[in-house]
Amino acid sequence: MSEKKQKAAQKPRNARARQPELPSRPFFSRKITLGSHQAQQVYKRGFEVTSDAFSEIGIVLRIVGTEEEAKAVEKVVDDMLDKVSTELKQEKERMQKLLDENGIVGDPQFTDPLSTEAQIFNPRAGRYLSLISEVDSVIRSMTLLWLSGVLTDGQYTNGAFHLQRRLLKISATIRNIARRARFAAYRKRNQAQNQRAKDKEKQKEKAPAANPTQEGEKSKDSDSGAESPVEEKKVATA
């Protein structure tokens, strides 16, 4: 490869390196291991984008909107997370009851578990990660019941898929809420700015302007104070 081609190939990489870095944000890492395919899919497809939506609600919305608007949106999101958490707890208790009734004890193993460290940038991201972990726990119980012959293939497959879809649906809903709230805050701020500009224009229009009649009288007064050339000529003739 020629020197020019090498420089051309390196240019995009260098251009990206020169871009300004994002502001430093606090976070901590939480180790998590997910055995079920469904929980892994929720983590891969839903965790980061949902975490970004939480940050948008908690931080960005307060910048472009008001504290009251941010708290109202946070209340809606928290209620959703609480509801899903309650549903998972009830499902976990139901699975455990079936295990106890059938005398089944154990922990199923998975051929390809996902072990990772998730970065927690805000408290609600930590809650969503806990919900993913809870889904994995419920599916583990389902798997044990299925492998033991208590649950049918259809019950196991549909049950596990329902939990995956439930958390991904929550993710999509939260992202839509964050987007709508941001647009509404921007629109409200722009309307307020436009109204202030209109008010300033009205104030300018109401300000007293110079009176052309008075200016004309002043001009006549100044002209009458000086002798005209005709009068000077008459005085000289006399």
UniProtKB/TrEMBL annotation:
Residues 196-207 have a biased composition (Basic and acidic residues). Keywords: Plasmid. It comes from the Bacteria. Residues 1-26, 185-238 are annotated as: Disordered. Residues 7-16 have a biased composition (Basic residues). This is DUF1845 domain-containing protein. It comes from Geoalkalibacter subterraneus. The lineage of its organism: Bacteria, Pseudomonadati, Thermodesulfobacteriota, Desulfuromonadia, Desulfuromonadales.
